[in-house]
Amino acid sequence: MFKFAWPWSFALLIVPWLLQRILPHAKPQRSVSLRIPFFNSVTHSPPGTPTTLVSLTFFYWAYVLWILAVFALANPQWVGPPVPTEQQGHDMMLAIDISGSMEIPDLKWHHQAVDRLTVVKKLAKKFVAQRKGDRIGLILFGSYAYLQTPLTYDRNTVRLQLDDASIGLAGPQTAIGDAIALAVKRLMKQPQSMRLLVLLSDGANNSGTILPKQALSLAKEYHVRIYTIGLGADHLRLSSIFGDKVINPSADLDESLLKQLADETGGLYFRAKDTMSLADIYQQIDALEPVEHNAQVFRSIQYLYPWPLGTAMVLSLVLGLYVIIGLNSKPAVCHSRESGNLNMS
Predict the structure, then answer these.
(1) What is the pLDDT of residue 148?
(2) What is the mean pLDDT of the chain?
(3) 315 with 61: CB under 8 angstroms?
(4) C-alpha dihedral sign at 115, 116, 121, 123
(5) Number of CB atoms found within 10 A of residue 326's CB
(6) What's phi and psi for 146, nearest 5 deg?
(7) Which of 16, 30, 135, 292 is the most buried if burial means most Cβ atoms within 10 Å?
(8) Domain spans, the chain
(9) Would the pTM count as exceeding 0.85?
């Protein structure tokens, strides 16, 4: 869509006409004039050409330049179609356990038994993809916690970094306290109402330098809301030479700690015993912490004023060169049989 940002500028088009009407005209002065028979030859003008024609030509050129300048001043623009913008959502850290116990194959993906981390990676990537407008960061923790991805709007980067997570990369044990403290450190400078931590673990805190209670105090102090997920099936059938036996692969899961972390920070605790329940938990968190979108849009603007302004500058340069060349050129001398007498009037 084409438009002028300052259309009131076109009122300046009548300024030259007003000046011509308002300013007083030069008074005629009586002087001695010379009548030169070969005047037309000297001025390169054809016989009978009015002497005011040159002045009128310059006046018209000047007015054209003025029109171009006014068009540039009106700031012509080409405005693009409306493009919706995303409103800023939450600042969310995902803390995912990659300790040795995440290797237990007690979950299924497409009816095949797979380890816990494989399922978590696939479902967490879907969850990240849905969080349009959120800034998301990724923490991986085992015996110690480390930042895999800082807070970013680039959800694709978070998903790629999540793919790189592997079991035992951070050690075989579980440092829940360190993971929470690291998340609080990354969130503490963000707006209070937007600080979220989603922590997934399948064990108990048995490593790290910060106790879970200390990390909980930090989370409460900096208003970080924690959603915790306890992962792992209740039973797993194992086959051996002595026959089949059923064990509880989640015997080490510290549910009381995960519940406390969620309750005291205003979050919720979820128990994921299979793939379907874990997928449902991510959907519940997505619904509990929706990303609000508004109707704000923006339009790209292409400024067109350089075109009339540049044209005016080029025409001014051409006109100036024409005047300079005309002044410096020597008029051709025409030999005439007419008398060279000058009549004084």
Answers:
(1) 95
(2) 83
(3) yes
(4) positive
(5) 11
(6) -145, 155
(7) 135
(8) 2-80+300-344, 91-288
(9) no
